[in-house]
Amino acid sequence: MEGEAIRKMLSGLSVNTVLEWGCGTGKNTGFLASLGSSMTAIDFSEEMLQQAVKRHGGTGIEFRQGDIMAEWDVQDNHFDLISSSLILEHIEDLKPVFQKASRALKPGGYCYIGELHPYKQYNGTKARFENTDGTTTIVTCFNHHVSEFIFAAKLAGLSLKTMEEWFDDGSETPRILTCLFQKSI
C-alpha cells in the first residue's frame, strides 16, 4: 500500500536530484529514479542493498550503505527530493533526521515520508519479517504521533504541503500515513 501511496503523492513532482533513505530491496527506487535525473539510494542493511542493486543495478542509480542516524555523507543543499518509506518507526528521536534532511535539501526541495499509521501502532501492529526457518522477528519500533512528524519537520524549517491517510478496502482504520514537506526558499 505504501508503494501505491508514494506513486500517487509524488507523480508529477518536478525534481532533478533524488535521495532515498531506506531503499531496502528497491521497491520504490525505480519509481523515484524516474522522477529525476540523478538518484542516490541508501540503506542500513547490506543484504537489502544487494537486493536493490540486483533489481536496479546498471540504471545509473548510486547505491550506498549508510545509517540515517549517523552523519549523512551527502552534499548540503543538493537534493530536490528526499524520500523515506517505512523506516522512521525504527528511529526513536525524529528531530535529528529532519534536521539532516533539511540540510541536504535545496531551498524549495521536498521531503516525503510514508509510515505505518500511528493508529495501527497504538493497536499493537509492528514491523516484522519472516525468517528462512519460518519464525517471525518483530523489529524494534517507536510510536510517533502525527504531531511528532509535523513538529520535527517544522523545527527543521520544513513545512507540511500535504498529508494523506491510506486505508485498506473496507477498513475504518488507516494503515499508512504519508506527508510531503517542503524546505523554505
Write up this protein.
With 185 residues, the chain is α/β, with parallel strands linked by helices. It has one domain: Rossmann fold, CATH 3.40.50. Helices cover 28% and strands 32% of the residues. The chain has six helices and nine strands. A seven-stranded mixed sheet has the order 3-2-1-4-5-9-8, with helices on both faces. It has a two-stranded antiparallel ribbon with strand order 6-7. α3 (46-56) links the parallel β2 and β3 (62-65). The model has no long low-confidence stretch (mean pLDDT 90).
Give the helix level as a range of percent: 25-40%
Going by CATH, the homologous superfamily would be Vaccinia Virus protein VP39
CA-based shape: globular
The CATH architecture can be named as 3-Layer(aba) Sandwich
Low-pLDDT ranges: none
Strand residue content: 25-35%
Reading side by side through the largest sheet, how are the strands ordered? 3-2-1-4-5-9-8
Structural class: alpha/beta
Average pLDDT confidence is: 90
Number of strands: 9
CATH class: Alpha Beta
* Main pleated-sheet profile: 7 strands, mixed
Distance between the termini: 32 Å
Order of helices and strands: HEHEHEEHEHEEHEE
List keywords for this structure.
two-stranded antiparallel ribbon; 185 residues; Rossmann fold; 32% strand; alpha/beta; seven-stranded mixed sheet
Please provide a brief summary of the model.
Helix content is 28%, strand content 32%. The protein has helices spanning 2-10, 29-35, 46-56, 95-104, 118-122, 146-155, and strands at residues 17-21, 38-43, 62-65, 79-85, 105-116, 128-130, 136-138, 158-167, 174-183.
